[in-house]
Amino acid sequence: MFVAGSAYDGTGIKLGIDWLVEEMGKSRRTEALRARTDTYAKI
User: What domain of life (predicted)?
Assistant: First the structure.
């Protein structure tokens, strides 16, 4: 699906960033990196 966005008011940029953050939150790679970061922070 294509949604028109505008660089003038930033609507397309905000939607894109919101989508990216949501997808990263669901990613197993993100979970692995977060776990690794927590491990190193405890050292």
Answer: Eukaryota
Amino acid identity of residue 13, one-letter, is: I
Identify residue 39 by its one-letter amino acid code.
T
Residue at token pair 């790679």 = 29
Residue the block writes with tokens 């294509």:
2
Q: Please state the separation of Cα 32 from the chain's center in Å.
A: 15
Dump pLDDT digits (tens) for 3-33.
566 667 777 788 888 888 888 888 888 788 8
Whole-number Å distance between alpha carbons of 16 and 38: 28
C-alpha dist (Å) from residue 37 to 21, 30, 40, 43: 18, 10, 5, 10
